[in-house]
Design brief:
The protein is an alpha+beta fold. The protein has helices at residues 38-54, 61-74, 85-94, 123-126, 148-155, 211-224, 244-252, 279-282, 297-300, 314-324, 407-419, 448-451, 467-478, 481-489; strands at 9-11, 15-17, 81-83, 98-101, 104-109, 112-118, 134-138, 141-142, 162-168, 176-181, 183-186, 190-195, 199-204, 232-235, 241-243, 260-265, 273-276, 303-307, 329-332, 340-347, 354-364, 380-381, 431-433, 439-441, 492-494, 500-502. The chain is built from 14 helices and 26 strands.
Length: 508
C-alpha cells in the first residue's frame, strides 16, 4: 500500500474512446477483518443460482461474475469501473499519450453515450464532434441499452478502419451522421506560441507523464524570445484532466517551491495527503527536473487561465491552486466540477492483467474548497463568443448519475428539501418518439423575438478569432504588473470565510 496514492488518476468522464488517461499503479490495500454481510451474500448466491438454472439459455460463470463486478463498481459513482485486459492495456498505453481510437472522452447517458470532450488533433476533433453531443448509434446500431464499456469497445478498432456515429446535438433540427476513420492517436499535451506585445500562449490538452517537462520546455522557449515579460495565457479549456503529479508539476512552474497545491481526503489514512510544489510530488521522468530550473519570470509574470465547462479534474486542480494563491486570474466559464480522485488497482486473476479504477478520495484546493459537483468559478466570466456560449457546453459533473456529493452540501440540500412545501404538479410536456426510438419532450414554441439570435461562431482554440483568448490578451495589457509580482511573492491566502492563512511548506 506504500506510495499507492503517489500517482492518482483524475479523469472527468467515464471512458475515453481509444484509451483512458493513465495513472501510476499499485496493489490493493490490506484491510483489517470485517464482518461479512451474510444476508446480502445469501441473496447474491440465490440470484446467481436462479440465473444459472432458469435463464433462457446457458450463461458462463465468467460472464456472470464479470457483469456482477462491473455493476458493483459502476453503481458507486460515474468514475469507478472494472478494467478488463483490453481496457487495462489501453489505459497503460494512454499514459504515454499514444493510443488507437477516435480521441473523445465520454460518459454514460440514457440515450447512449455523451461526449465530455474531444481531444485536440484527433479524428473526433477534426470531424467537429463537440462536448455535449450524444452518440446514440454506432454503425447504425442503437446503443442506449448497452454498457458504456461495450460502446467504447465499438468505437475502438484498428487504425485506418471506418466508423459512423449518429449523434444528437442541442440546437440541431435532427440527428447528425458523422463518418470517421480510426487512427493511432498521438496526443501532444502541450502547445505554445508567442502572442503580440511580449506575451505568450500555452495550451494543455491533457495531463500526461511528460506534461510537466513539455511545459518547462515551452516556457523556456517563450522566455528566450521575450514572450513572457508581459504575461502568459494558460489555456485549459476542454482539458479533461489526467495525472495528479502532472497537475502538481504544472502548478510548480508558476508557484514558489513548497506551496500547497492540493490535498486529498479519503476513507483510509493513505488517502489523506497534502501535495506541494516539490520535485518529490511531481517528478516522474528525469526531464521533469526542468520545472525547478525555470527562470524567475515564470513565478512573477501576470497569468490568465482560460477554463470552460469541459475543463475537469487535473485542470481544476491547477486553476484552483493558482486562484487560491492569487497567482492568476481565472477567465471563462464555470468548470466541470470533478473533485474526486481515482486510483487504478491491479487485480489477481489467473494470468490475466485486469484492474479496477476506484474513487478513493476527494480533493481540495489550498484554501480547503471542494469543487466536487460545483467547479471553479472564474474571476472574470467571459462567454465562448461575443454572441454567448456554444450550445453544446452544457454538461457538468453534477449532471452525471450517481455523482459524489460533498457531505456538508448533501446535508444542507436534504435539510432544504425537508423544509420545502410540495409544489403543485404541472401538466407534463407531451412526448414524441422518432423512428430511431429516441424519445424527446415537445417544448412549447417560443415567440419569434425570443428565438431569433445570432448563432455563435465556432472556432479552434488558439486561432486568431478565438474570442476568449483575445479577451485574455486585452486583460493582460491592462493589468498592474507590479501588483501581480507582489501577490506572487506573498505567502498568505484568504479562505472563503474571510480568514487569512499563511501558506507554509508542508512537511512530509
Amino acid at each position: 500500500m506504500k506510495n499507492m496514492f503517489r500517482g492518482l488518476l483524475l479523469v472527468s468522464g467515464g471512458m475515453v474512446a481509444g484509451a483512458l488517461i493513465s495513472a501510476s499503479l499499485a496493489g490493493p490495500a490490506k484491510q483489517g477483518a470485517s464482518i461479512l454481510p451474510l444476508d446480502e451474500i445469501r441473496q447474491f448466491t440465490d440470484v446467481y443460482g436462479a440465473v444459472k438454472q432458469f435463464y433462457v439459455e446457458p450463461v458462463e460463470d465468467k460472464k456472470l461474475m464479470k457483469e456482477a463486478i462491473s455493476g458493483m463498481l459502476s453503481g458507486l459513482d460515474p468514475h469507478s469501473a472494472f478494467l478488463d485486459e483490453e481496457a487495462y492495456k489501453d489505459l497503460q498505453e494512454g499514459t504515454a499519450g499514444e493510443f488507437g481510437g477516435l480521441g473523445i472522452e465520454v460518459s454514460a447517458d440514457p440515450s447512449g453515450v455523451k461526449v465530455i470532450s474531444p481531444i485536440d488533433d484527433t479524428p473526433a476533433a477534426r470531424a467537429h464532434i463537440r462536448a455535449g453531443d450524444i452518440i446514440f448509434k454506432i454503425d447504425g446500431k442503437l446503443i442506449k441499452d448497452q454498457s458504456l464499456n461495450d460502446s467504447v469497445k465499438m468505437m475502438r478498432g484498428k487504425p485506418d478502419t471506418n466508423i459512423e456515429l449518429s449523434i444528437l446535438r442541442k440546437g440541431s433540427a435532427g440527428p447528425i451522421n458523422i463518418k470517421l476513420t480510426r487512427a493511432i492517436i498521438k496526443v501532444q499535451s502541450v502547445k505554445s506560441k508567442p502572442l503580440p506585445d511580449g506575451m505568450g500562449y500555452v495550451r494543455i490538452s491533457q495531463f500526461q507523464e511528460r506534461t510537466s517537462s513539455d511545459l518547462a520546455n515551452a516556457l523556456e522557449s517563450l522566455n528566450k524570445s521575450g514572450n513572457l515579460k508581459n504575461g502568459l495565457v494558460l489555456d485549459l479549456r476542454n482539458d479533461p484532466g489526467g495525472l495528479l503529479n502532472a497537475a502538481i508539476g504544472v502548478s510548480a512552474a508558476f508557484l514558489p517551491k513548497g506551496s500547497l497545491v492540493v490535498s486529498t481526503k479519503g476513507q483510509i489514512e493513505d488517502a489523506k495527503k497534502e501535495y506541494i510544489t516539490s520535485p518529490k510530488d511531481y517528478q516522474v521522468v528525469r526531464e521533469d527536473a526542468a520545472v525547478e530550473k525555470l527562470p524567475e519570470v515564470t513565478k512573477t509574470m501576470p497569468i490568465v487561465v482560460l477554463v470552460n465547462g469541459a475543463s475537469a479534474s487535473a485542470s481544476e486542480i491547477v486553476a484552483g491552486a493558482l486562484q487560491d494563491h492569487k497567482r492568476a486570474t481565472i477567465m471563462g466559464t464555470q468548470s466541470f466540477g470533478k473533485g474526486s480522485v481515482q486510483t487504478v488497482i491491479p487485480m489477481r486473476s489467473e494470468g490475466k492483467k485486469t484492474a479496477i479504477k476506484l474513487t478513493t478520495a476527494r480533493y481540495f484546493t489550498p484554501s480547503g474548497r471542494s469543487i466536487q459537483a460545483k467547479g471553479i468559478s472564474p474571476d472574470v466570466e467571459v462567454k465562448d463568443t461575443a454572441e454567448g456560449n456554444f450550445l453544446d457546453f452544457d454538461i457538468r459533473e453534477a449532471d452525471l448519475s450517481n455523482h459524489l456529493e460533498v457531505p456538508e452540501d448533501k446535508a444542507a440540500k436534504d435539510a432544504k428539501k425537508a423544509s420545502e412545501k410540495p409544489k403543485k404538479a404541472e401538466a407534463p410536456l407531451p412526448v414524441k418518439t422518432d423512428a430511431s426510438g429516441i424519445t424527446e419532450k415537445v417544448e412549447p414554441v417560443k415567440a419569434q423575438s425570443e428565438t431569433v439570435k445570432k448563432r455563435p461562431k465556432f472556432y479552434r482554440y488558439g486561432d486568431a478569432d478565438d474570442y476568449q483568448l483575445n479577451q485574455a490578451i486585452d486583460y493582460l495589457k491592462k493589468v498592474d504588473k507590479e501588483q501581480v509580482s507582489k501577490n506572487a511573492k506573498a505567502s498568505v491566502i484568504e479562505l472563503e470565510s474571510g480568514i487569512k492563512m499563511k501558506v507554509e511548506p508542508v512537511k512530509k
